């Protein structure tokens, strides 16, 4: 069970993400932050929109 | 949708917990950190053991 404490840094609250199995979390990763009513905080890695592509029609498939 | 980015601070990875609805998360709160295989990080507030009490027999209830 890994634990970590929140702390003030300037005017914002930060938390250290401790290493698990000797591996540190990746820096510069964007997370979606979800606060649950029970106090749990969920950090979901933000993904780029898969369908946001340059070309129009790249997902088009011809009928066989 | 609130997002936040991880960053290096010294040798550890930290993330700012952004305010939600104008309210900041509480500093000095201990969280249990859970890393999921899909990259999601769950922070569960650590609670004291409810049954870790001083007196022996405080939970004893007599039969009616």
TrEMBL record, chains A, B:
Residues 1-27 are annotated as: Disordered. Residues 1-14 have a biased composition (Polar residues). This is AbrB family transcriptional regulator.
């Amino acid at each position: 069970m890994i634990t970590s404490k929140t702390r003030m840094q300037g005017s914002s609250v930060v938390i250290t993400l401790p290493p698990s199995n000797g591996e540190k979390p990746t820096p510069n990763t964007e997370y979606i932050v979800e606060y649950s009513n029970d106090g749990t905080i969920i950090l979901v890695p933000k993904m780029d929109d898969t369908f946001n592509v340059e070309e129009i029609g790249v997902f088009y498939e011809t009928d066989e």
